[in-house]
Design brief:
The chain is α+β, with helices and mostly antiparallel strands. Helices cover about 40% and strands about 15% of the residues.
Amino acid sequence: MCGIAGIVSFLGGKPPAAREVDAMVARIHHRGPDGRGCYVDGFCCLGHARLSIIDLAGGTQPLANEDRSVWVTFNGEIFNYIELRRFLKKRGHAFSTQSDTEVIVHLYEEYGENFARHLNGQFAIALWDVRRRKLVLARDRVGIRPLFFHKGRDRVYFGSEVKALFSCPEIPRNLDWRGVARVFTYWGAPAPGTVFAGIESVAPGSIVTFAEDGRQTHRQYWDWEFPDRGNRDSRDFGECLGGLDDALRAAVTRQVRSDVPVGAYISGGIDSAMIVSYMAGILDGPLPTFSLRFADQEFDEGAYQKAVASHFGTRHTEITVSTADIGQAFARAVWHAESPILRTAPVPMMLLSQRVREAGIKVILTGEGADEVLAGYDIFREARVRRFWARHPASRMRPALLGRLYPYLNANPAASQAYAEKFFGQDLESAEHPGFGHWPRWQTTQRALQFLHPDLRVEVGFDYKSEGGPRLPTRHESWDKLCVDQYVEAHTLLSGYLLSSQGDRVALANSVETRVPFLDNKVIEYANDLPARYKLMGLKEKYILKRLGRGRIPDAVCDRPKQPYRAPDSASFFHRGVPDEGVARAFEKRRLLEVGYFDVEAAGKLFDKCRRGRAIGFADNMAFVGIYSTMLLHEQFVERDGSEHCATGVLPKVVAG
């Protein structure tokens, strides 16, 4: 895994200099501490920070084709590069390295801007076509690797992280409250939006190009697709089970390709356990595995983690995280996330990746994505219950159905039947709306918006019901409702938060590459084509995966209800009622007035409520963490320029065009 950055000048613009891009790359040294490179000509400068995974000796970037007419700087892994290399050689292309990067330039020669369709991997690519003076930016299908850009009057700047762009003094540094409002609703800002004014994100599955005159075009080369619910699927369950098994095994086989040791996370759930089961059958020797535990037993899954490690005889390492650990590392996590965050959950993942790196492991496979692909979240079950209510308003089954939701929560919202029926029974008349299944979550999350300064609240004017979440293709009307819910989830929580703030950013904070076989496009495409009932059977989540896991992983793990990964939130910043120094400063009346984002009185009352340990459920905790992280973000990136925590590393190797 790596970091990329660059500048391209349009006709008449100031030529980019290597020193400018070197400063950009220095900001993201943590993404690639093993080396730096730079290509520069009169119009383009490409930079690269390398984390060596494939072809350790020969994979230096930026890299060109045979006649140096196409250059690339690339962040990610191309898992089918061996097959692509074989095909391209038959087509007459000559290779000078063994790296996966080199297939990109030759694919571009072969297919032009359609090259990305042929890649199986997780990637952010910047490709410079010297003859056409055209910049091509491409991002993987689901948004595993980030890619941002800023278009100025006569230049475009791009980078793996926003902090790289902010090393350029000509780029303004201000929050975009339309983006922040979406974080305070969907947990992330859906691409191409971001939380910074003037900064755009290349959307997952998309290509953005810039011509020599500055003309910008956008094209989507892939999206989540589902069959029409009226289509009759003649496959029986056993056939589908075997097909999913084949798809997952092939994905893991591709993703363990590496010239450095590969490990895995064990969360205690079925998803990571299944990944470990495939890896154990492919790799030789004890597999290095890593787990995250919590001092607070409400969040700890240690017994299940140990059961998986023991079952497969892995070389297991675990860390135990306390609330004090979370509080101390929170500001660093925000700096890496480059976004407000509503939960502290990214922080322990960052601490875990630090332990992975200390163990000498650069590559980790995880079970992320299984819940989106195979319908594992409570939100899918909850939506099914609510749609049943809408169809059968007088049903007596309501209490029984509610009791099957959220069994892992100490403060279960379904415990009080009266409250649950009032909360979950809202908006039943809108059950056909594509965002219906997500409205209860978004309503809870949006509590944070109530703490904005009144003037800012009016300015934002954001309503998730009218926006409806992500823009769905018109064909969604023919999909099963579960598939609609999966599409919305993939384009909000997954790409906007789980793969970014809680994924790529906190792993690469410690120069660790995470790989996610459940999000291999072949797995997604196979799973999306399955009958919806095989994924959510009644209220049994991930039904087909649990059947696939029977006899492969410990029964206790296979049979347990879904328990999403969580961490202590507001409690992490107070110890015996005394606030940490950072959070106390952020919530000072003078500081809140100075920054001007939040209602001072309302924020102060929330602070006092959390200090006394009286935060109520998710809404209070998310609002508190959201306010604090936004105040930190303002300090780190608006008042400053995002340069703290950055290391300059080694000097780049410069190649002139």
